[in-house]
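Thermophilic desulfurizing enzyme family protein
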Amino acid sequence: MAPSVNDLLASNGDTIQEPNAKKVKPNPTSDPTVYDIHHQKFISDGLPSSSEAWIERARQVSAILAIDAASRDIENKSPRAEVALLKSSGLLKVLGPHAFGGGGQTWDVGYKVIREVAKGDGSLGMLLGYHLLWSTTANVVGTEEQKHRFQRLIIENNYFVGGAVNPRDNDLNITDHGDHLVFDGFKNFNTGGVVSDLTVLEGVFAGTEHHIFAFVPTEQQGIQFAHNWNNVGLRLTESGSVKINQIRVQWGDALGWDVSTKLPDPTVLAIPFATLLLPTIQLVFSNFYLGIAQGSLDFASKYTTTSTRAWPYGGDNKQSPTEEFYILERYGNFFAHLRAAETLADRAGLAITDIYTKHGEARTVTERERGDAAEWVASAKVVTTDTALRVTAGVFEVTGSRATGRKVGLDRFWRDVRTHTLHDPVAYKNRELGEYVLLDKVPEPTWYT
């Protein structure tokens, strides 16, 4: 019998390591001990006990990350220290069941936590958001046994979950080998895998159109990271490519599959409930876009009040930049649009929470209910994309040319938003919303809807 996830973790994956696997030199890593004083305080304080306390904990983490975010962005070290901070703060557990030591919060709170962290460091906001989605994947596409088993595994061990889940890459194949499956292939992108404890794999079961998700231990030679993430933004997310080389997965770990028939369990992978992973993560995106944009406005406002100079050749000269009409007008306009985007994102978060609260046990959500919630998410995606790009670029107009200095770090906010808003074309969200308005048509579930 093939080893289970728990067996592999206990043996550190030794049963599937390949001694001749090609070695790739990783990036230097950040040192978790730099946050020791914060680790000790968070552990001493314990987990927050209310929704507002969880959001406040996220604010505290965000403030810590913001202190040296610009220099860390330049150094581009693998974020082991930063993930360790997410662990000690408890934020990885915010959605976990109380029974296993989690925070017991709902997605609307989780989204706000992601947003707060992203204000201080967009990369860490993104990593946290993806982790929260992947760590709860079994809740949506797993059996009841798998749901509880993986929640317990992740929460009790405070694991950080990365993922090689990129549906546009169709060259990761899954084959049946009796009592186990073998995942083999390549993904152009994975997120956070290099610094993760578990990795979610996804691929197509050979000879079918069915996809299979499975958790596997990251520390094994069958997972070969290319360490090639060096993009313009979100530089600390370790989102480079990965080769999946003959990874064995016990049939019982294939999320939502019937071990006896080796077919998807129709009571578990019911459409449209099983497709809720997609609007859920699309709203993760919107919230870290929004958080990054809010962080840019906060950063810029501090810079303006301390470093920007009034323009002396306007004919209506002011002593201070905070008296300049155009500076006041721009900040006011940016602030208003961010407030509107935040209100919309919060409303969409409630729509996702309501779906899971009402239908999480029975998995009986209708196409209409799912579609209406998805269009709240699509609306948030459109508005946060447009607003975040506009604000993170526009803050230079109210800070001045010296704010473009690399060490200042104001550019990181725009670079982070610009990088991820290319994930899937927002134009399709606009079209989707147009069909919703004009034709009363809810979207067909896809990998991006």
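thats it. The first strand starts at residue 161 and ends at 164. The two ends are 38 Å apart (CA to CA). bye
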